[in-house]
Each structure stands twice: as structure tokens, then as C-alpha cells.
Amino acid sequence: MKILVGLSGGVDSAITAHLLKEQGHEVVGAMMSIWDDSIPTPQNKGIDACLGPEDEDIETVHKIANFLKIPVHILDCRQEYKKVVIENFRNEYKEGRTPNPCVWCNAYIKFGVLPSTARKNGITFDKFATGHYANIIFNNSLNMYQLCKSKDAIKDQTYFLYRLNQKILSETIFPLGKFTKEEVREIAKKIHLPVAQKPDSQDFYCGDYNDILQFPKISGNIVNKTGEVLGRHTGIWNYTIGKRKGLGLSGGTKEPLYVINILAKQNVVVVGTKEDLYSSSLIARKVMWGSIPVPKEPIKANVKIRQQHKPAKAIIVPIGIDATKVEFEEPQMSITAGQSAVFYKDNVVLGGAIIA
């Protein structure tokens, strides 16, 4: 089988290509180029990030391809990435929400635009593979492919992949789903892979997010729950739910204050106590049921409201065809508009939605 592997210059995607080649497949590498020179070059080069200048990554990808003895292609995905990921990122912050760009990048760029661009460039392949820590199974009783958690619970990346549809799941392979990160590193050392010790990417962008947002400073009030003005801000996009440090408030409060709400239309940031951060429910829109038929009745599931969040027991209540209400068994802290609520049943990712 001929398999296209998305290479990033890191150890995970490189070992993915290695494992598939060891299994006897014909492997072709592809790196998506997404860096737009209109974004200022980040000064903090000590942190490896997904979005940033690509010269070193391209050089590394070529080294990996030469080491593995596979062909590699650098594919221009910049315009699509800018339109889908960057514009959504900017629009969400402008509306007082905190987006997760990795969700949109995976669903529409990495698993959509990249393989599509490869085919447009005459690259033929049977399956597409990446170095994500996740698994895909076929459920015979449902006649559906299902996205499942990886062996490595810490590295599991299904939270970012919940928007993959049936077509994408049917055409995708995740070779690392049955490995831990430690096992992957050991394989890399054993074969003397050039990037065996390369650190993982730590963030979406290692510079100041204002480099991407490029919004003019718009000052407004910081208020408490009763509307009392406690201070001023220079842009609501500099705040997210749960933020405590750097609020710019003078003393006078007996306990720490946190951002508990962002009112975009009023250009107001609302602060309160830690207790105010807890909520028993949320409304989410742009629902994607990737691994099961669309439920018509409430269902029980475990729900993650951010990547590092411990899944919490909840009841998911459908609202029309594009929204859902999530009612938690116990109140959850810092539910943030713009982030994703992802629904799990045992190891299966049922689906997810964007918190509204």
C-alpha cells in the first residue's frame, strides 16, 4: 500500500514513516508549509511551536526523508491555513472567546488541505498517516469508523481530532496509537534517527498572540459582578476565563480575583472570585458527531472542556441539529467560550462541539 505521511520535522511523524516502511508499505513524505511572512517573526526561538518560520523545519524534514530513504514534498498550504485557522483565531478573540487553533488546523488543514494538495500535485496514495497519538477502529454493529484514545493517556491527542469525519477516518492511519511516547523515543534512539532527542512542540505560536491578532488598542472597563468599575483594560483579547495574574487591578480586595466573563459587545471584562468560575452546564454549537449516529435523545458521556481537563461525567442534551447542552454531574471550573467540549464513552470519542 502507498501511504502519504505528514512530516513535521519531529520524532513522532518520523517514526510513523519508519514504522510504515518497516511494515512493507511504500511511504511518501509531505510537509505542509503554513508560515505567512505577514506575521512578525517571534523573538522567543527557544520554544518549538507549530506556527513559525519554517527554514529549519524544512531542512530537518529533508534530513529525515534522506535518512529513511523516502521521497518528500513541501506543499504550500499557506492561503488555506490563513483563511481557515488564522481568520477564525482572530475572529474568536475579537468576540471575547478563546479559540483552539489546533482543532481547526487538524480538521480542515492537516487532514483536509494537505492530502488534497498532494493529490493536486500528482502525488498518488492509498492512505494518509500522521504521528498523532490516537487510534481508529471500525465498529461493525454501527458500520462506522470510530476515533479512539491512544495507549499513552498523557500524550493522547483525540481532543484535537474530534472533528474528523467518516471519510477522513476511513482514509487515515495512526501508527503511534499503540505506543507510548517513551517507546517511540526508544525506537528513534535504536535506529539512530537524527531527531531522536528533539523536544516536542510546546504551543501553537511561541511569540505574543498580538503579533497574529494585530488589533488596535481599545480600552474598556474591568468590573465586578455588580458592575462596579475596578480598573481598565486595553483589549478584551488579552484576557481569558480563569486569568488571575496581570489584571492590572490595584489592591482593596480580600481575596484573589479572576476573569469570570468577557462581554465583547460592551467591551467589558468581568472579574470575580474562584467560586464564580464554577458552572454546572454549558451550551455548545457546531456539533460534530464523528463516531456515532447523531443522537436524538440525551446521552451520558465523559466530557473534556480543554486538553488537560480530566473528563467529567455529564448528560449531553441535543438542541436542534447544531447545538447541545452539557449538564455536568459536578460543577466544572473555567468553562471557556471558544474552546471545545469533547464527548467520550470509554475509549471512544463520540464527538464534540465549540463552547458557546
Characteristic terms for this protein:
356 residues; Rossmann fold; SH3 type barrels; Elongation Factor Tu (Ef-tu), domain 3; 3 domains; six-stranded antiparallel β-barrel; five-stranded parallel β-sheet; 23% helix
Question: What does this entry look like structurally?
Answer:
- The protein is α/β, with parallel strands linked by helices and 356 residues long.
- It folds into 3 domains: 2-132 and 174-205, HUPs (Rossmann fold, 3-Layer(aba) Sandwich); 216-272, SH3 type barrels, CATH 2.30.30; 278-355, Translation factors (Elongation Factor Tu (Ef-tu), domain 3, Beta Barrel).
- Helices cover 23% and strands 31% of the residues.
- It is built from 7 helices and 19 strands.
- It has helices at residues 11-22, 55-68, 78-94, 101-120, 166-170, 181-190, 210-213, and strands at residues 2-6, 26-33, 49-51, 72-76, 127-129, 135-139, 144-148, 172-173, 203-205, 220-223, 229-233, 258-263, 268-272, 278-288, 299-304, 312-319, 323-333, 340-345, 348-355.
- The strands form 5 sheets. It has a 6-stranded antiparallel beta barrel with strand order 14-17-16-15-18-19.
- The longest helix has 20 residues, at 101-120.
- The protein starts with a strand and ends with a strand.
